[in-house]
Structure formats: structure tokens, C-alpha cells
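# step 3/5: fold
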Amino acid sequence: MFDLIVRNANLPDGRKGIDIGIQGGKIIAVEHNLQAQAGEEIDATDRLVSPPFVDPHFHMDATLSLGLPRMNVSGTLLEGIALWGELRPIVTKEELVDRALRYCDLAVTQGLLFIRSHVDTSDPRLVTVEAMIEVREKVAPYIDLQLVAFPQDGYYRSPGAIDALNRALDMGVDIVGGIPHFERTMGEGTASVEALCRIAADRGLPVDIHCDETDDPLSRHIETLAAETIRFGLQGRVAGSHLTSMHSMDNYYVSKLIPLMAEAEINVIPNPLINIMLQGRHDTYPKRRGMTRVRELMDAGLNVSFGHDCVMDPWYSMGSGDMLEVGHMAIHVAQMAGIDDKKKIFEALTVNSAKTMGIAGYGLEKGRSADLVILQASDTLEALRLKPNRLAVIRRGKVIARSAPRIGELFLDGRPARIDGGLDYVPRY
């Protein structure tokens, strides 16, 4: 007797007509025609059943703050940082908690149950840290939230930043962050990477650095990050986020850089929506779009995962909490439109991101946590094309969100009366 059985599921690996048996918050069976009963059964009706979406790079302290205290007129990264610097000293813990919880409500409906959020530690009050720790506790029953101590104004550039980052880690923040390209000089940026990796090694923590989020091809802190990762024995525990300068680097240098990154087992986190919005702002035409070299990094065996980064905040006025929107944009910007390409993009929203975050028990295999999403799509390719409704979101074997199918009605002589979210016209590969 199972607690829940999801029947007739299509899985991301291509298996079809699979039944998933769940008991005690765990997946107990994954097989065809499961001969068992359950307290509850859900018929997936040959829809895609996926593990939950994972966002390994977000800024929850700033989310939903669009227009406060004003709009980002230039649309640039630097004005966004300055604007957040105006809001940060006047924001309250209550406001931060309220906005973050509202975003988490949205995330759950999108099947997004794992989030890594960078938390600005530049204000010595650390009200952002206090607020996000409270949010982490409140959402723990339905979202795994990791927190990164992020010195937004620079580890060396901002007075008191060193002490504030250490205090944030003492308070229970999970990960060491940094922003070397925002330091005053390349030398100070390099020094900050070394110092932050040393802190992580001493404390036994992972590292996630905003690294080379710039159009400058000479911003090469990822090289330093890879070298320090090896030096301190942090392989597999370090993420380089953004890496947009790689978009502009010459190919010969990159041919040396990528093998070094692979040796260090760097986790790479591009943020397609925000990278193409913020980069290339000083260009006329040709105009760079800034996203890092996704295909080359994947081909080299690096773990590439995609982040949403921002939703309606000083840097990005759009966003929906939908990781399929992120993947949809990645397909276009990375020019990865082939069938195998799209499968890799879907993995970058799920299993790759879970690896980046070190999530235990993730996946649809027997013995894993019973966290899954039923989508109104037949497979991963159509999920990326349609960005479909999440028909059910399940956490530890319990349904925590539902959405009605998207159905179009037609009133045309001789034509179908209903259109099932576009699925009636899906090509068969």
C-alpha cells in the first residue's frame, strides 16, 4: 500500500508510461504497470513528470522591489548596484521577509523547490541576512533555500565588508560569495578571490563567486578562482556565476582557460535572462549579448547550470520564477536548438543545478526524495518550447500546488473544439 502513485508518466530520460510509487516521502517504485494500491493516485496521462526545478543563482533580498526607490533608467548593471545601494539602508526586515515569501509562493506554483540566493552583506546592520535566515526557516517545509554571503559592494572596496561577511557566516549563512570584478583594481579582485577561498577552506564551506560579470575580456578572475580552488582542495565545491567576460575573450586564451576550469571542477552558472539584458550596454553594433560559452563549457565536461538571477528588481524589470523561461532563452542565446542540445538545457535546469547546490536525494530514481512536478507537456523538448502549466507540484509525496491545464476553445466549423496547450500539434521526433 503506497501513500501516492503517479501513473502513466513520461520521464525526462525518454521512458514512457511509467508508474511512480511513493511512500513515507520517498520514491519506492519506478516501473511500468505498478501492481499496487495507494491512498491517492494521480493519472499523469502521458505527461512529463520531472524532478523539481532548481535555481542555483538568485537575489531574494532584492526580488519584487522594482521601482524602489526609483527605476533603473539606463538599464545597466552599475546603475542597478547603485540603486540597490540607495534602497538597502532604508529597507526593513519585515519588507524583505514579505517580498521573499511572496516570491517563494510564486516559485512553488512553478515547480521551483530549490533556490540558492545571494544575500548582500554590505550593510553592517545585516538586516538582509537576518531576514533571509528567517525566510529560510519559514519555507523549509516546501523550499530548500541556500544562502550566500555576498559582499555586493566589494570585499575590499567597501568599508567593513570583511567583518560583515564573517559575521554573516557566523550567523549561519551557508556559502562564501564575492564579486572580484567590482573591486577597485584587478589586483584587489585577485586578492579577494584568494581570501574568500581561504575562508571557505577554513570553514569547510562552498564558494559561489559573481565572477567577471563584465564585457571586459581582460577580466580574468575565473582563472584565479580555478587556480585557488585547486590550491585549497575545493574541487567540485566552487561555482563561478555569470562569467560573461568569456563571451568577449579571444579563443586562444579560452583554449587554456577551459581545461583549467575543468581541472578545478568549477560549477558554471550562466544567467541567460539577465546576462543578455545587462551586457553589451556600451556597444553600438555589432552588439555583444554577453552570455558565456555554454556549448564549449558543456563539451569540456563542466557542470553547467542556469540561474534566474533576478525577478522584478533594480537589475531586471521582468521575470516570472519560471526556470523554463530561463531555459527557453538559453536555447536562443547559446544557439543550442538541436534535440540533444535541448535535452542538455533541460538538465541544466534540473540535475545539473542540483549538483551545483549539492542536493541530496534529488531525482526520480528509487530511494530518492518524492519531489516531482507534472507538466502539461509530453517531453522535455516540448516543456522548453511551451513553458507549460505545472499540473501538480509534489513535495515529499504531498501535493503542494496545482494548476489547471491550459485549454483553448475553438468555435470554427470543421475544426477541433479544444486545443490542449498546443500539444495537439507537437511534432513526433
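# step 4/5: annotate
Residues 65 and 313 are 5 Å apart (CA to CA).
# step 5/5: archive (pending)
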